Amino acid sequence: MATVTRENIGPLNDKLTVTVEKEDYLPGFEKALKQYAKSANIPGFRKGMVPAGVIKKMHGAAVYTEEVLRSIEKGLVDYLETEKLDIFAQPLPEAGNNPDNLDMNTPSSYSFHFEVGLKPSFELPDLNQIPLTRYKIEVPDNMIDEEVERLRARHGKMTEPETIATDEDVLNVKFEESDAGGNVIENGTTKDHSLLLKYFNASFKEQLTGKKKDDTLILQLNTAFDEKEREWLENDLGLDKSNAEDAGKFFKITITKIGLVEKRQLDEEFFEEVYPGKEIKSEEDFRKAIKEDIEKAFEGSSRNHFHHELYHALLDHTTIEFPENFLKKWMEKGGEEVKSPEQVEKEFPEFKSQLKWSLISDKIIKDNQLEVSPEEIRNHIAREVMGYFGASGLQGGDMSWIDSYVDRLTKDRQQVENTYRKIISEKVFEKTEANTSPLEQPISVDDFKKLQEEHQHHHH
Q1: What is the pTM of this model?
Q2: Which CATH class is domain 3-118?
Q3: What local confidence, expressed as pLDDT, does residue 36 receive?
Q4: What is the pLDDT of residues 288-347, one digit of tens each?
Q5: Which one of 1, 65, 224, 350 is at 20 to 30 Å from 428 when CA atoms are compared?
Q6: Where are the domains of the chain?
Q7: Is 55:37 a contact under the CB 8 Å cutoff?
């Protein structure tokens, strides 16, 4: 049986020396040679009748090395389990561990050395002693106005006026690259587009007003559109928005259709269509329902921002020591690719921050016995599927394929692991949030956006 000695070589950094005697590995070595002899197929010998000396000469060195290393590894694993060492990553073998020095002709005791980084013990801060703010985003009247108009248009009826008259007219237009006289250029850019009249600038809108289906006009991009709309259109036409020549190109446009959404009246039929079952009778109650919807969306944004604040409060106010020398060695040699010392120094701060958060979240999970059940994982995946396809697209018809699709996803290991991480992360923040007493503060939409931008700039 292997023996293991432990020596401290730095902060939270120990060296484990695993020693095996020949009695620990020779029986396994001899047994493995016999197995080779039984299955070996060597010309000149009947299967299973190959002399032990031949097998040893052909395969002995490799089998011997394999058996010694297996005994070393078993001794190391057994020690870690028995002592219940809570370590980072995997033990890091020292450079002096050289399997080439193993000689089956002179069996003896062997010692291999490994470094381990020990996880530290630490305490979480009292978040009630840390100033935290939860923002309540105020819904401005103009945002409610915009949503009312959007819903009126979305549930409205498409009509086809005879002439172009309002900013909200939808124009189906064929663009054909031409010269200033409207002569179409052979192999020039040609594309069909759908544009609102208001996308054109004021002077060109005057030319369009009163036009009918099949009428044609000549336009130059940089005189018919203001900068924002022109850049969008140039991109869609496959032109280079940074090229002044492209901006000056002429197009012959043909109006192929004129459409106008006839917006819905603010009546009970419309209210019921937007909010079925809520029995909304007045415009005031309709606006109130819209405000509540917007507030719910804002609550999600506010909660996400508060969770970011919690994340940084925990990181900044939790003191954790790390075995930095070990971790840098592990980053350099223990990953899939060997890194240079310069790479390690550059990446270490971010690596350490991620490691710190991992320890903090693991402690919250353990201290609060947080778990994620298979049912929770399945339900979360199902909600994501429904959200992806959209509730409106799943109404009616045979819905059994949804269950089959979700079943397949729950058998995908990567999908399950990703979903587990999402759910457990939500639970970590919910549990942490429950232990805080933040200051509630109202904030405007614009100020909240600025706050988020400043937050992102500060932490990235």
Answers
A1: 0.72
A2: alpha beta
A3: 75
A4: 999 999 999 999 999 999 999 999 999 999 999 999 999 999 999 887 788 999 999 999
A5: 350
A6: 3-118, 157-262, 283-459
A7: yes
